[in-house]
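From: lab user (bench 3)
To: helpdesk
Subject: output format question, protein + adenosine-5'-triphosphate

Hello, I'm new to running complex predictions and I'm not sure whether the block I got back is the full result or only part of it. Here's what I submitted:
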Amino acid sequence: MQPIGLFGGTFDPVHYGHLRTAFELWQELRLAEVRFMPTGSPPHREQPYATPEMRLQMVKAAVASQPAFVVDDREIRRTGVSYSVDTLTEVRKEFPYRSLCLLLGMDAFLGLPNWHRWRELLDLAHIVVAHRPGWRAPTMGPLGEVMVDHGTGTIRDLHQNPSGRVYVHAVTQLEISSTELRHLIIAGRDPQYLVPEEVRQIIRDTRCYAPRQR
Ligand code: ATP
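Helpdesk reply: Thanks, we reran it on our side. This is the complete output you should expect:
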């Protein structure tokens, strides 16, 4: 059976950098599907600007036209901080033998040693790292060691084992970030062509990135 891709993020808001990355990884790694998993209360960063419900609504709208993309809202439904290790443990219980691929941008991968119980992630899933503009694969430190011990250049390894490998894959470089998008929208500018039209409409209709006192 083909692997399931798990793509977590704040998605504040979701943009074409996320969507194109997920699409290329889905196609090139021959994943059965990519599950977008918007985080509820992210532990590693300041709290999102848009509410969990708004971020979820935007992700649902963004993926609606691609049947291989599904939305998994378990982290949004969970109260308290969402740890990836807990989410993966839950998904693993649902799919005990299936290959699971945690999809990460290089920036997220480089921050991995700060994640709660991060070393356990590879017991639960593979890690697939998408090259992002401006970031390099680690060669030293704990992640350098992980690359030596778990790295593979072979997609077959991701299909034949349920977890435990790290695979780095170059994707089309789209230098879009949610942070820059929020700044642009809060400044009153139009995010057209950086986000799907459906997402742009939601942002416009709900004013979920209207300037406000924090
Ligand atoms: P922010 O600017 O708020 O940190 P972001 O644009 O990095 O947001 P996240 O929701 O934090 O978006 O990212 C979810 C995942 O998508 C992460 O693994 C991140 O590395 C990846 N990602 C985000 N933007 C891109 C992009 N332009 N190209 C490839 N991967 C991306």
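A quick orientation on your result: The chain has one domain: 4-174. Let us know if anything else is unclear.
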